[in-house]
Amino acid sequence: MAYTLKFIKCPICKKKTLWKGNPYRPFCSRECKLADLYHWLYEEYRIKLKEEELEEEVHPEKEEEDEGV
Ligand SMILES: [Zn+2]
Prior knowledge:
The protein has helices at 30-58, 61-68; strands spanning 7-9, 16-18. It is mostly helical. It has a single domain (7-68), classed as Erythroid Transcription Factor GATA-1, subunit A (Erythroid Transcription Factor GATA-1, Chain A). The protein has a two-stranded antiparallel sheet with strand order 1-2. Strand 1 (7-9) and strand 2 (16-18) form a beta hairpin. The longest helix has 29 residues, at 30-58. It is rod-shaped and about 80 Å long. The model has no long low-confidence stretch (mean pLDDT 83). It binds zinc ion. Zinc ion binds at residues 10, 12-13, 15, 27-29, 32. Residues 10, 12-13, 15, 27-29, 32 line the site of zinc ion.
């Protein structure tokens, strides 16, 4: 049986990269793995910001109370 090398396409830069022995798979390099990680952290951060904005809209009387006292 011939030994076949399996190639995968990096989801970040779309470069062909070797699957076997690649510690950063499915990415081609550490840079692409980090890029993906930052992407997820950024998305999570955006979701958190949205939730905070909504919470403020739900309790608008809190600010009025402070002004009255
Ligand atoms: Zn890549």
